[in-house]
Amino acid sequence: MADAYGNKPVGPDALSLALSQIAVDSHWTDVNRGPSILHVVWSLLALSTLVVLIRLCIKLRKTKRLYWDDVIIIFALCLAYGHAICISRTVHYGLGRHLAFIPAAQREGALRTGFISLAFGHFAPMFGRISFCITLLYLTATDARMRAWPTIVIIGLQVLINAIAVGLVFGQCGNEIDILWTPGKQLLYYQKCWVATIQTKYGYFQGSFNTATDLYLTVVPALLIAHSRLSKKAKAELALFLCLSSLAMIASAVKTYEAKLLSALLDYTYDLYMFIVWMAVEYNMVMVASSMPVLRTLFIKDHSDASSRPAHYDVPMDSLWSRKSSRNHSKQMSSTSEEHLATPVEERDAGGHGIQVTREVMLTYETNDAPFVHAALLDDRVFIVTGGARGLGLTLAEALVEAGAHVYCVDRLPQPAEDFYQTQDRVSQFGVGSLQYRRVDVQHAAELNEAVASIAAERKRLDGLVAAAGVQYVCDALEYPSEKITEMMNINYGGVYLSAVACAREMIKYKCPGSMVLIGSMSGLIANKGLRSSVYNSSKAAVIQLGRSLAMEWGKVMDGRAIRVNVLCPGNILTPMVEKNFEDEPHLKKLWEEGNMMGRLSRPEEYRGAVLFMLSDASSFMTGSHLVIDGGYTAW
Predict the structure, then answer these.
(1) What pTM did the predictor assign?
(2) Which of 34, 173, 605, 614 sits CB 3.0–4.6 Å from 91 for a disulfide?
(3) In the annotation, is 536 catalytic?
(4) Chain segment 615-630, per-residue pLDDT in tens
(5) What whole-number distance in Å separates Cα of residue 68 and Cα of residue 74?
């Protein structure tokens, strides 16, 4: 064995004498710090247990199940209890006292359980950090600017580096591990085992890496919060709950400093006091920090007054490995959530129809490997809506802004309709998203490409398109002017084609996989009764086929990631274009109302939810499809 000063081997009969002599030289007294160790370890463990249990209760109440990050945090908690039990047993044998004052019969028990406790102490914070990393994988998937691979790499390195640390403890003496605690063999340490400073040096490295991991787990949530368009108050609240890893980082840094004592072999039971205390602080702070985002739901109030607030949408998230069916999500608009990062509010339109949405992220974990956004968009996405100066295009643009997106309405009108400015004033009060207008004729490729490129460059991204520009001309086929055929096909089909290509080019440039919704019509599937517009019907049929073709081409266009393309086929809508049809042919209104199963025409706002679904990651496996919403008109 070695003394506490030079780490030189002592003679075979000198251990007890050396201990006694050092005790005299150092003026040791029989101080017992064991009770204070137990007080710290069990008090902190009680706190972290309470936090984890509240987390699990919230999860079960909200989602009726647990997920992988929950399973891992439970395992971390079990390891923490293993550490606390070992420490309690070690204190019984004499941990916290100078080794010289511990009876020889108890020294072996103190050292043996002390070494065993190190394994629990290393692995408990490791699994706590992995649990938080998995939660971060869910969150970073909601921000196109964040990448998942650094978190995945950190998970792998956490396992590797901490496993090596435990391996060094129990492998330093080869297959004679009992040399570490058996009194009759301890004198063989320097003959059979590695130099003790290896433990200290690797402890510095391991602690530094864990501290860096905690820094990462603090910075990434801060970046996610900074990228959002939340109020300063909301950001401060989120920072409080998501950046608590800074406390674990401090504990890890102090524990790393105390790792110098790992080579002080002669008085292990006394010198490791601070190392053990800070190890307990570290793993408990890690578990608390990884659970606090879920606990934020306890502090969110349900605001029912939405007179000046936008509609927001529930944003559930998929578990990375869950195999549970997502059929429950099809039964209700507002799904349950694990982590509220926003306050839900409700807005009702004049018709009494309400949609609940969230400005910030509300998390549940379900079946896909991508963020599952239920009829919603996330903050800061950028969309272009052609034909957005009025009518259906403007209504859909407003819905996107309410969900937090930045929307650019494109139309050939020199100035948008008065409705646009009223909508722009209304959405400006929401505090999220934005609504702007660009005069562009979708028939002119160069002009369109320039406008789309300018929009994407302004925001450094483009996430999708709603191609709603279209015109109508009612006329018998035998009398249809050729110039009207050209104009209608150029706008209804050519404009959609050019818009999709222009947007796809910029989405690829800025590496933004996203979604496009091409506005078709049920008239592209049937001969719309009473509507003498063969060219219009044909143009919409072409749009449906275009959607399939572009979806095929762009399914893996960005390193395996897709630009999804789908077509929305509305039924008869009360828009300015349709009202013009009624002026020309008054009998159409009654004919169309009686032609569907609901006995009425649709309103533009009734397509908001469908477009939000198709543009968001809620429809992440939907491409090349057409969605018919016609009140049952085509189902007869």
Answers:
(1) 0.50
(2) 34
(3) yes
(4) 998 899 999 999 999 9
(5) 10
